[in-house]
C-alpha cells in the first residue's frame, strides 16, 4: 500500500478510536453536573449518590479519552506534513485555543472535582463539575470549528503556496463549524443518555437499587429524547448546508446520479458506482429530495454525473453510512420516548423485555456517531480542505510506507489494549453499583 493509503488508514483508526470516548464525556459530564446541582439545591442524598456513581464512570472514560487523543495531533506533523505546512496558519489557531483554554480548564477543574469531595464545600464542588461540563463542550467547539473550516474554508487567502488567515471572525462564525458542533455535542448527549439507560436497565432487571436506577433512568430518558429530537433538527439544517456548499457529498449520501429539478427521495436503493446508476430503487417520494435539500419542492439537485469522476466521494460507504445513521437516529427517538413514558408511569420493571432491548442497544449510539463522521469525512473526499487542497497533496513526502505501517500496527495494538482496559473498568464499576453516600 502507498503512503497515502496507509496514512489515511492510520488517521481513521486513531480518530475513530478516540471518538469512542468523546461522546460519552460530552454527555455524561452534563448529567453528573445536573445530579450534583440537584443535591446542592435539595440536600437529597439520592442525588449525591447518583453524582458519585455516574461520576466515577465519567472519570474512567475521560482518562482514556485523553490518552487516545494526544497521539492524533502528532500525525499532522508526521504523516500530514504538507497539510500542516499548507493550512497551519489557520488550523493551528483553533487547536491552540482548545488546548490552552478549554483543555486546561477542563483538566484543572476535573482534578478539583475528583479529589475535592471532602475538601470543598458543596457549592464549590458542584461548581467544579459544571465548569468541567462547560469546558468539554468548549473543547468540542474549537475542534469542530477547525473541522468546519476544512469543510467550508472562509476568511483566508492563498499566498506563497499556503493558506493564510485574513479574518479570524469568519472562522469563528462559520455556520459549517457550528452545525457540526451542535450535531456532535447533541449526539454525545444521546450516547450518554443511552449509556445511563442501559446500565440502569441492567440493575433493574436484577432488582438492584431500584429507586436509584429508576431515577437515573428517568433523567437519562428525558435527556436522550430531547437530544435525539434536536439532533434531527440540526441534521436537517446540515443537509441544507451540504446541498449548498458540498453538492457532490449530498449526491453521494443519496446515491443521486442525474441532475433533476423536483428530485424525488428514494427510500430503498443500492448504488452501483462503476456503472453510474442504482441497482434498484423502491418507494420514491415525489420531490422529496428537493424538499429535504433545499426546502423547496422545485429546487434542482445536482447528480453525481455532474462532477468529474476524480472529484466524486466514494459513493457506497458515504451512502450506506448516511442511511444507517438516519435509521438509528429514528430508533433513538422511539426508544427514548418509550423509556421516558414508562419511567414516568413507573412501569419499567414490569417489562423486562424492554429493559433488555435498552441494555443491548448500548453500542448503537456509538455506531451512529462513527457513521456520522464517516459521512462527514469520506463524503468530503477527495479534498482535505474542500475545493482548496486535495488529500493526495497533504501527505508527507519524506516518509516510507514501512514507517507508516509500523506506527499503524503500533497504534492498533496500543489502542486495542487501552480499549480492553476501558471496557473492563467500565463494566466492573457499572456492575458493582452505587456506594453508600459520603462526602
Provide structural commentary.
The longest helix has 36 residues. The model has no long low-confidence stretch (mean pLDDT 88). With 439 residues, the protein is mostly helical. A hairpin with a 3-residue loop joins strand 7 and strand 8. The chain is 72% helix and 8% strand. It has a two-stranded antiparallel ribbon. A two-stranded antiparallel sheet has the order 3-6.
Compile the SSE list and pairings:
Elements: H1 3-18, H2 22-42, H3 45-78, H4 81-115, H5 122-151, E1 156-159, E2 162-165, H6 168-173, H7 175-205, H8 210-245, H9 247-254, E3 260-261, E4 265-272, E5 277-285, H10 288-294, E6 300-301, H11 315-344, H12 352-360, H13 363-378, E7 383-385, E8 389-390, H14 391-394, H15 401-432
Antiparallel strand pairs: 1-2, 3-6, 4-5, 7-8
Tally of extended strands?
Answer: 8
Radius of gyration: 23 Å
Give, in spatial order, the strands making up the sheet with the most strands: 1-2
Task: Find the structural class using helix and strand composition.
Answer: mainly alpha
Q: Largest sheet, described in full?
A: 2 strands, antiparallel
Distance between the amino and carboxyl termini: 56 Å
Report mean pLDDT, rounded to a whole number. 88
Helix content: over 70%
Q: How would you sum up the global shape?
A: globular
Number of helices: 15
Order of helices and strands: HHHHHEEHHHHEEEHEHHHEEHH
Quote the beta fraction: 5-15%
Uncertain parts: none
Task: Quickly describe the structure.
The protein is mainly α.
Amino acid at each position: 500500500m502507498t503512503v497515502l493509503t496507509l496514512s489515511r488508514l492510520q488517521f481513521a483508526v486513531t480518530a475513530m478510536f478516540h471518538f469512542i470516548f468523546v461522546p460519552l464525556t460530552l454527555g455524561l459530564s452534563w448529567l453528573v453536573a445536573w445530579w450534583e446541582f440537584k443535591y446542592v439545591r435539595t440536600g437529597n442524598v439520592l442525588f449525591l449518590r447518583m453524582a458519585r456513581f455516574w461520576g466515577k464512570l465519567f472519570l474512567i472514560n475521560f482518562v482514556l479519552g485523553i490518552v487516545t487523543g494526544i497521539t492524533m495531533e502528532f500525525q499532522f506533523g508526521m504523516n500530514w506534513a504538507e497539510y500542516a505546512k499548507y493550512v497551519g496558519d489557520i488550523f493551528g489557531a483553533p487547536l491552540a485555543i482548545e488546548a490552552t483554554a478549554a483543555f486546561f480548564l477542563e483538566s484543572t477543574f476535573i482534578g478539583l472535582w475528583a479529589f475535592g469531595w471532602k475538601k470543598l464545600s458543596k457549592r464549590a464542588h458542584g461548581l467544579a463539575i459544571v465548569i468541567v461540563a462547560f469546558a468539554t463542550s468548549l473543547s468540542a467547539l474549537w475542534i469542530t470549528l477547525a473541522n468546519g473550516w476544512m469543510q467550508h474554508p472562509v476568511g483566508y487567502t492563498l499566498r506563497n503556496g499556503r493558506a493564510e488567515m485574513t479574518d479570524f471572525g469568519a472562522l469563528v462564525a462559520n455556520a459549517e463549524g457550528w452545525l457540526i458542533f451542535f450535531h456532535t455535542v447533541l449526539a454525545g448527549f444521546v450516547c450518554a443518555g443511552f449509556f445511563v439507560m442501559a446500565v440502569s436497565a441492567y440493575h433493574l432487571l436484577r432488582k438492584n437499587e431500584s429507586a436509584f436506577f429508576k431515577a437515573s433512568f428517568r433523567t437519562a430518558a428525558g435527556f436522550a429524547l430531547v437530544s435525539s429530537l434536536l439532533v434531527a433538527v440540526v441534521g436537517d439544517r446540515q443537509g441544507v448546508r451540504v446541498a449548498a456548499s458540498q453538492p457532490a457529498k449530498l449526491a453521494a449520501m443519496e446515491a443521486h446520479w442525474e441532475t433533476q429539478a423536483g428530485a424525488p427521495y428514494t427510500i430503498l436503493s443500492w448504488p452501483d458506482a462503476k456503472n453510474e446508476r442504482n441497482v434498484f430503487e423502491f418507494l420514491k417520494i415525489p420531490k422529496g429530495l428537493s424538499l429535504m435539500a433545499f426546502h423547496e419542492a422545485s429546487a434542482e439537485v445536482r447528480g453525481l454525473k455532474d462532477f468529474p469522476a476524480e472529484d466524486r466521494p466514494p459513493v457506497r460507504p458515504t451512502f450506506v453510512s448516511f442511511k444507517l445513521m438516519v435509521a438509528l437516529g429514528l430508533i433513538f427517538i422511539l426508544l427514548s420516548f418509550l423509556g421516558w413514558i414508562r419511567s414516568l408511569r413507573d412501569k419499567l420493571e414490569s417489562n423486562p423485555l424492554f429493559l433488555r432491548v435498552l441494555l443491548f442497544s448500548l453500542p448503537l449510539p456509538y455506531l451512529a456517531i462513527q457513521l456520522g463522521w464517516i459521512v462527514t469525512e469520506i463524503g468530503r473526499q477527495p479534498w482535505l480542505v474542500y475545493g482548496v487542497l486535495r488529500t493526495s497533496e497533504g501527505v508527507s513526502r519524506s516518509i516510507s510506507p514501512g514507517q507508516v505501517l509500523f506506527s499503524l500496527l503500533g497504534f492498533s495494538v496500543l489502542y486495542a489494549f487501552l480499549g480492553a482496559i476501558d471496557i473492563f473498568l467500565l463494566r466492573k464499576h457499572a456492575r458493582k453499583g452505587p456506594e453508600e453516600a459520603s462526602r
